[in-house]
Amino acid sequence: MNIIFISPDNPAPWRKALRKHLPEADVFFCGSDDIGADFDASAMDYALVWKPEPGLLPSFPNLKGIFNLGAGVDALLLDQTLPRHIPLVRLVEPRLSSGMVEYVAHWVLHFHRDMHVYARQQRARDWVQHNNAAVATRRVGILGLGELGQSCAHALLMLGFENLSGWSRTAKQLPGVQSFAGDDGLKDFLKQAEILVCLLPLTVDTRGLINAETLALLPKGAFIINAGRGPLVVDDDLIAALESGHVEAAALDVFNTEPLPQDHPYWGMDNVFITPHIASLTTPMSSSAVIADALHDLEAGKTPANLVDFDQGY
Description:
This protein is of the alpha/beta class.
């Protein structure tokens, strides 16, 4: 079995992890000494990729499966040359979920406990105490109830957030979480979300979903946490809402352009908290175990978990 690995990541930890979990495979790392004059692209059975150069994957004509080294496949799907007859599997693994849970819980608590206010007061050398809002009545809405959204909801319930809601394309039944679904449910969901957590994948339907119209539906003084995809947000509309005070503050991990340009207005806003796409990072050892299971399913003629539906976009 031959695997081509295409990613800007450091290959060393991936070599070790893949050797452990796929000892039967010969793994070739694109951009390394593995790809010599005698390299046979037609002999590659599987591709492990993260944002490969558009047009590259068709150069491996006999692939039986493509494995994305992250949960989001939007960058891959933008490549018009992507072979759509080949199974595409996205990465969903425990360490990715736990990283997202930590990130979301941190920022929900940060805004719930007015830490953004205390940070501003520290810079002004102001000693002012504020009453703590009740965790049981704080209304948190999770936009996207997939694997990551459900994990975050469970963690927030454990922290005592009893007024949890979630929105998804189709209704989900989660204990302790009020479910909204479809276009009809989106407005009602947004109207009650004091802290909005965005975890949706990027699709034709979700691009620009956070815009002037939807932001206006949020309660005045709402908070936004975006750890899904940058293009979910129309930047100019969010900036206007932040400047007007309708949105009090935002924590943003993903952006329309990454790295975030040096002259972007977000950098200079004291009610915007920026992290460089680190909410949930792929870990080679744990990811390789999940990839190995899915690859073995494909080899056995089974349908692997987290197979991408090209029509839905995730």
